[in-house]
Amino acid sequence: MQYTATVSRMKAAGAPPRLSSFAQWADRHFKWLLVAPAVLLILALSIYPLLFSLVVSFINYDFQVPGHGFVGLKNFERVVFDPVARWSLLLTAWLSGVSVAIEFVLGLLVALTMVRSFPGRGVIMSILIVPLFISPVIVGQAWTLLLQRPFGPTNYILTQLLGQEVTIGWMTEAPWLYVSLIIADVWQWTPFMFVILLAGLTAIPPNLYEAAELDGVNAWQAFWAITLPHLAPMMLLALTFRLLDAIRMFDTIFIMTGGGPGTRTYTASYYLYTVGFTQFHLSQATAGSWLFLIFTALVVTLLVRRLLKAEPV
Amino acid sequence: MAAVAPVRRPKRRSIPVGRILLLGFFLLFVLWPLYWMFNTSIKPSDDYLTVPPVWFPSAPTLVHYEAALFAYRGLDGLINSLIISLSATVLSALFGTLMAYSLARYNTGGQHLSFWVLSQRFLPPIGIVLPVFLIYRGVGLYDTHIGLIIAYTVFTLPVSVWMMFAYFRGMPKSMEEAALVDGCTRWEAFWRVAVPLAAPGIVAAAVFAFIACWTEFFFALILTSRTAFTLPTVFRAFIGFQGAQYGEAAALAIVSLVPSIALGVLAQRHLVRGLTLGAVRG
């Protein structure tokens, strides 16, 4: 045993045996004592609530209906057969897909402009990462200030640029409110893609490009043959992390549209929030959140497993 | 497409117009909402609805800041946010460092334990917060500082653990082994040798935990109400009103984003590790 080896070495070195019996016990179980606080906290506030919610989703737990009787799959049925629930899941997939795609392309382009050093690069870098440190609530608020009629200056600017009167209801009219939500998400999270992809780009050995240039390879070919394959693991990592956060989308919707008009901007998280906390059908909401959890787990196993196998660094 | 030219090419042929345009456009895109928010926060209410809009307020005022902090209880939210975020940050950094050290040096629980912690990062918060709300109401932690501190500690633990896990793995073991040979207990080897060496990493992990707590909205929205409410939840007061509170909302936003941006920019050297939970060294 490693511990006794240490003690015998200590004795051989003439060190006095100064450990109390508690200290000896603590030293022997050292590695488990270190993980204990974190593991206990996660068990208490993540695993226990999850199990508890599993129980709740099979009983009646509703502030409008008294009693906590077993109701079988009824809560799950209510969610599955709710057209708003299906709409919200669809919208979640669609909004996060489009946002992440735009963030990825834009982040990659900006990263490519920032690879080489130039005067002012440090300052620009510091500015570009700012959105990452802002609460999504504030991001939603900032875009509300810019877009909302009649206060926001966006319509005025567009009117001047296009030379004709623009009166878009950015937060109320059907296609435009999705555009607004996507813009806010793109504004906040493009720097995420940019930062990770830039780290990947700077890790590519420059002599590859020098060799390619000697061979007379043009810029476009070098991008396809060198940049893309070297960057692929990092791209997968950035996309995975971003997608898993994007499907939780809630804060900007809460501030910008409040889910409306009607239920048009309900995402999965927003739908479950309203079912649980404005309608108080808590057991229906927990059942729904378990379904969403399973949906997320599927995405995780599909993406993260692949990611771990690729072993990017 | 000029933007996709090969990187680090030694020759410079011409001025890269495409790149400058792209970067300039993106910089404008990032700065414009921030500028407009600042502009709104110091603009007198009379200037809200003018056509054309007032780009530079001629008579800047601080009335919106005063109203946001006092009439809308922004100051209470700020103090709550400070108490809760700082406490959760300290706990998260402490417990995260303890666990990460054990994972990195003793391979505790093999891969399963470390990935179990990582998986917590990807749980949708709505799945956790509903039952936590019910439990908190049962045990009297609803709308208390302690309740939100515990929730935030757990919510930032995966990031703290994984950032520190990566940090310890990148640190040579030899110093701690020497300390053990010299008769230190494992605790002493950890506390007196490894922790001081890992201090920069711990600070970086703490900064990202703090920013995560400071900007968090969803847990605070559901787990607090009139007592332990945090700064982001104060913005609920400005939803749906047409026009009147724009200045207050903007002023509160400016107050709220200064600390997290300052910390984030100071810690930007560690940003890549922070964003990828240590998976990329950056």
From TrEMBL, chain A:
SUPFAM superfamilies, per database record: MalF N-terminal region-like, MetI-like
Family named by the database record: Belongs to the binding-protein-dependent transport system permease family.
The protein, known as: Multiple sugar transport system permease protein
GO biological process: transmembrane transport
Residues of the ABC transmembrane type-1 domain: 89-304
CDD domains for this protein: TM_PBP2
Bilayer topology: Multi-pass membrane protein
Lineage: Bacteria, Pseudomonadati, Pseudomonadota, Alphaproteobacteria, Hyphomicrobiales
Subcellular location: Cell membrane
Transmembrane domains' residue ranges: 32-59, 87-111, 123-146, 191-209, 221-241, 285-304
Major subcellular site: membrane
Keywords carried by this UniProt record: Cell membrane, Membrane, Sugar transport, Transmembrane, Transmembrane helix, Transport
Gene Ontology CC entries for this record: plasma membrane
Automatic annotation (TrEMBL), chain B:
CDD domains in UniProt: TM_PBP2 (cd06261)
GO cellular component, one term: plasma membrane
Topology with respect to the bilayer: Multi-pass membrane protein
Keywords from the named record: Cell membrane, Membrane, Sugar transport, Transmembrane, Transmembrane helix, Transport
Transmembrane regions listed in the UniProt entry: 20-38, 78-101, 122-139, 145-168, 189-211, 217-239, 246-267
InterPro entries registered for this protein in UniProt: BP-dep_ABC_trans_perm, MetI-like, MetI-like_sf
Pfam families: BPD_transp_1
Subcellular location, principal: membrane
Subcellular location: Cell membrane
Keyword Transport: yes
Domain spans labelled ABC transmembrane type-1: 78-267
Keyword rRNA-binding: no
PROSITE patterns in the record: ABC_TM1 (PS50928)
Biological process, per Gene Ontology: transmembrane transport
PANTHER family, sorted: INNER MEMBRANE ABC TRANSPORTER PERMEASE PROTEIN YCJP, MALTOSE TRANSPORT SYSTEM PERMEASE-RELATED
Similarity comment text for this entry: Belongs to the binding-protein-dependent transport system permease family.
Name of the protein in question: Multiple sugar transport system permease protein
Species classification: Bacteria, Pseudomonadati, Pseudomonadota, Alphaproteobacteria, Hyphomicrobiales
